[in-house]
Amino acid sequence: MRARRRSRPRSRRRGASYVLALIMTAVLSTMAMAMVKSTGVEVRKAVNQRESVKARLAAESGVAFLTTKLGQFQITGSPTPETVLSNLASFLNTELPDGTVSFGGGEIQITGLTIDPSCGTFTGAFALNAEDDIELEVEGQSSQALRTIGLNYELTPGGQGIFSKGIVAGGSIQMTGNAHIDGANSAEEGSILSLSDQTTVYDLTGNCRIEGDIYGSNPDGECDLTGNVEIGGVNASNPEVVNHIHFGVDETEIPRPDPSVFEPFATTVLSGGTSGNKTFTNIRIPAGTNPTFAGNITLKGVIFVETPNDVTFAGNLSLQGIIVTEDPGSYATADNKLKFTGNTSLQGVETLPDQPEFAGLRDMPGASILAPGFETRFTGNFGTVGGTLAAEKFTFVGNASATVKGSILSFGDDPFVMTGNAHITIDRSEYDDIPPGFSVPSTLSSIASSYVEY
User: Fold this and answer.
1) Which one of 44, 133, 254, 406 is most buried, by most CB atoms within 10 A?
2) Beta strand 222-227 with 200-206: parallel, antiparallel or unpaired?
3) Residue 192: closest CA among 409, 422, 432
């Protein structure tokens, strides 16, 4: 009888498979949960990064927007830092929407501004820092992300482009013969700027020389150079001379002086003769008198000239102070002239004696003649001039020669003329600020090195 073969129970194999399936399911579930969690973290990181970038863009947009607004802000005079800040607050209050600007506690707060809703919002604050510069902080926000950018601004006096040149003329420049323009300390002091819109901006002939470069606001301006002309140390026959000729520079305006700052000093109305050996102090020349000062004349303090007037200074003139005129406006030079035909010495107001009649005036150096609306004509020698010369029209002829401690400003459209052996040397080493009598707006300029992100 054969023995019967026993088989292994199937239930055990099925149990093992079931356990294995459970283990695999658990492993896969764990892996899936880990992947989901990891994906969520990465998504959150991406969202946070996106919001951070948007917050930074909002801050950058705020800085750019407010910097553009500050470019339109101007202030005149010599304001204190606190005055600049308060005036800036008033300016922004008119330029920005109602309710977005508040000022108090020495700080300007700007809220509620949005450049682009999709790029978040920003708030800003202006205050004075330790150096009395205007400090701006802009905070950009997108969702919960915040980014802050800081940038400082400093008050920049206006007119620097005008007063940095030796001669600035509203009209064209005409030089003939041996006329020379030099710089006392550098070639740049002997540079010229013309704001003429004529085609021929510079008409230079003969042996004339300009030590500095020449500039013109008209981009289509031209130079007519004839003879042995020299510009920037280069002869006109040398092609390299074009490197010293610049057209299309930023057009600006020559500021007209305000004589009222000097007028109160002219307390004595001129009367009687003006010839011989005479001294006049703080005088006012009435309109229409057309005097001629001849002989050995000494003028001290403020010489105020009413309009119209045709005033001649002949003989030997010694001026210790300043000549100022009423401003009859442009195109009035036919009836308003200052003529210097003899030997003239022009010393600045700071050289006046410390006496009561000059109190305050001695503290206003930097200008010698401020004659808007008048033609000023020099035919003789006038030595060293103690400050800026400003007039509607200038003409230097014959042997007129001088060192001018300042600039020469010619307001009108008439040509600035130098002929014969006229020779002007510009020396800006002593008076490098804007002369008194000129009200030139100052602006706020950003200090690039102060930019910071945090």
Assistant:
1) 406
2) parallel
3) 409
